[in-house]
Amino acid sequence: MKTSNKILVDQSTRDDAAVYKISEDRAIIFTTDFFSPMVDDPYIFGQISATNAISDIYAMGGIPFMALNICCFSDNLPEGTIENILRGGINKANEAGTIISGGHTINDSEPKYGLAVIGEIHPEKLMTLSNAEADQDIIITKPIGNGIISTAAKNGNIEKKYLDESIAYMLELNKSASKVATKFGVKSCTDITGYGLIGHLKNLLNSSQLSCDINFLEIPILSGAKNLSSIDFWSSGAKNNKKILDSKIKWDKRITLEEKMILFDPQTSGGLLFTIDKEKSKDFINELSDNKNLFVKKIGNTIKKTNYQIKFV
Ligand code: CO
Ligand code: CO
Ligand code: CO
């Protein structure tokens, strides 16, 4: 139950952010995300964490404008580490047109960093999980598998080219993709983060009361993740996602366990997932692809709700 009719979106639909209507033509989007480092370089960590936090505003179709730092740091971090993390955050906030105007720090032996972000939107332009319709194409904008890469990197077990590719996508704001979606009047969207591709897709299908058919071969996967997916590099999050989400999926027999785990792999700063009417889908993909730093693919389509939720065809 929504606590007020001014709350247009809250946690009940598992959407990316909460939305508060302040007038007929304006609403505020509010979100927060923070986590511990997935890369060694503090400046890159700061950038990725900010990109990830701001993404929830873009996933709702909004324009971020202000943020606060959320910091958990210990006194014994190497000199310059905190400054570099914060500098990374400011860099990405600037790129997103967002001002970081303060924040709060506590002492914590395991460092964590992120943002609380505010954005705005016209209430009718909101993209949510519950607005998808049957017979729409499903589009994603970044390759998946960056959790496997980060885990392999932590174990010192990765070729640099794989790590660089993964980091480049994590550093890419979902700004241009969100802007194109707004232009095309897209109504349903989420970003792909902690629940992996399958989890976020399921949230959308649940909220919109739909099922879908997915073509596994069309799903963009980081080349490193294809090679490294193995029990050593499946995070507890990936295993947990599989445990919770594996029901109501009709797998194609040719899909291996290693491939399945990439679909359950929790993503950091992942891409956006949209559903859009088939007539508009080609032009939409073309325009999204103007941003050469994205990897845009149609991976399947929604159908009316049936006895399965996701079928691989
Ligand atoms: Co999100
Ligand atoms: Co989030
Ligand atoms: Co305070």
Order of helices and strands: EEEHEHEEEHHHEHEHHEHEHEE
Structural class: alpha+beta
Low-confidence stretches are none
Residue-averaged pLDDT, rounded?
A: 96
CATH-derived topology of the largest domain:
Phosphoribosyl-aminoimidazole Synthetase, Chain A, domain 2
CATH architecture of the largest domain: Alpha-Beta Complex
Number of helices: 10
Which helices and strands, and how do they pair?
Layout: E1 7-9, E2 18-23, E3 26-35, H1 42-59, E4 63-73, H2 81-95, E5 99-107, E6 112-121, E7 136-140, H3 146-154, H4 160-170, H5 175-183, E8 188-191, H6 196-208, E9 210-214, H7 223-228, H8 236-245, E10 249-250, H9 257-264, E11 272-277, H10 278-288, E12 297-304, E13 310-312
Parallel strand pairs: 4-5, 9-13, 10-13
Antiparallel strand pairs: 1-2, 2-3, 3-6, 4-6, 7-11, 7-12, 8-11, 9-12
Helix pairs in contact: 1-2, 3-4
The protein binds cobalt (II) ion (3 copies).
One cobalt (II) ion binds near residues 16, 31, 33, 56 and 193.
Keywords:
2 domains, 60s Ribosomal Protein L30, Chain: A, seven-stranded mixed beta sheet, alpha+beta, 10 helices
